[in-house]
């Protein structure tokens, strides 16, 4: 997937380049929490885009949390996943194809608990924004 575009955000681009160079997400952490690399498809451009996010996994399913650090707007990748729910997930050296589905209600509550356990800053991000931070389960 070398035709995928890197993030314009320097620390995100740096993380992604490390994963691409080493072939694994192993050993990469944000605030002590591991990350995985998602590859999405642009809603308008159709281009592949890399999205490194916190590793939230349960029984082979993954979670994408559209927190954008608690910003007032959704991250751009949120709209890409809504338009093109086929997403690949690299966890360690393994890459799997999944279909993303936005979640709500009790299912969201369950996954949000897992997300905050995996990366406690998510709770702070939610406090810092008026929007409900959305999430997708990839199965």
Automatic annotation (TrEMBL):
UniProt feature coiled coil, ranges: none
UniProt GO molecular function: coenzyme F420 binding; oxidoreductase activity
Transmembrane segment boundaries: none
Highest taxon, organism lineage: Bacteria
Keywords recorded for this protein, A-Z: Oxidoreductase
InterPro entries in alphabetical order: F420H2_quin_Rdtase, Split_barrel_FMN-bd
Catalytic activity: oxidized coenzyme F420-(gamma-L-Glu)(n) + a quinol + H(+) = reduced coenzyme F420-(gamma-L-Glu)(n) + a quinone
Entry EC no(s): 1.1.98.-
Pfam families: F420H2_quin_red (PF04075)
Keyword Oxidoreductase listed: yes
Enzymatic class: oxidoreductase
Keyword flag Oxidoreductase: yes
GO CC list: plasma membrane
Family (UniProt): Belongs to the F420H(2)-dependent quinone reductase family.
Record protein name field: F420H(2)-dependent quinone reductase
């Amino acid at each position: 997937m070398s035709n995928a575009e890197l993030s314009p955000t320097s620390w995100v681009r740096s993380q992604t380049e490390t994963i691409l160079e080493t072939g694994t997400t192993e050993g990469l952490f944000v605030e002590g929490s591991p990350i995985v690399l998602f590859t999405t498809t642009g809603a308008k451009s159709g281009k592949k885009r890399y999205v490194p996010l916190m590793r939230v996994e349960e029984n082979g399913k993954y979670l994408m949390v559209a927190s954008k650090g608690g910003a007032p707007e959704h991250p751009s990748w949120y709209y890409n996943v809504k338009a093109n729910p086929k997403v690949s997930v690299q966890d360690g050296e393994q890459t799997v194809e999944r279909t993303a589905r936005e979640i709500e209600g009790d299912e969201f509550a369950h996954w949000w608990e897992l997300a905050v356990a995996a990366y406690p800053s998510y709770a702070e991000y939610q406090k810092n924004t008026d929007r409900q931070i959305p999430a997708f389960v990839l199965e």
